[in-house]
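Predict structure. Chain length: 191.
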Amino acid sequence: MNVLGIYGSPRKGGNTDQLLDKALEGARSAGAEIKTVYVRDLKMCGCIECGGCDKTGKCVVEDDMQTVYPLFEEADVIFLASPIFFYSVTAQVKALIDRAQANWSKQLLEQSPDEKKMFKRGRGYLITVGATRGKNLFEGAQLVARYFFDALSMSYDGGIFFRSLEKRTAVRDNPDTLQEAFNLGIKAVTP
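Prediction complete.
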């Protein structure tokens, strides 16, 4: 089983990174092959809405996203990890997600509407952390994640969401969060 971990935090080594590290460790312990993308390191722009992918299903913008598209295609499971910024994912992650328009266009070219409703080639999970305790803190990010995974022909199978974690050591200071991430990794790759 191929697993892709998308690190979406602009802060290296922070809570989101630590949780995704643990989820991938859990998946690896259950036999998965792991690949990773650190969105903060990509040299890329957001979607320029040029329509170039409408006819081919391929993005025409030549930047680091061209190395990410094959990883989307190979993955059976994707973990998308992002801290919450204004009730959604980070700008870096949103740019990557917007560039998945090419994947959506490819689906429209290759699948009938009925096939699209039935066909899901993998599963996607969201791992996110927010500093506040707001009741709707994760709703925006979950909607974005759901439609991102849909563009990749994957089901959105939920994830793990942690409130009131801001300090860089907050996750390490709460071992239950790390265990929950590890368990999610195992669950995601176990039939």
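Summary: The longest strand covers residues 154-162.
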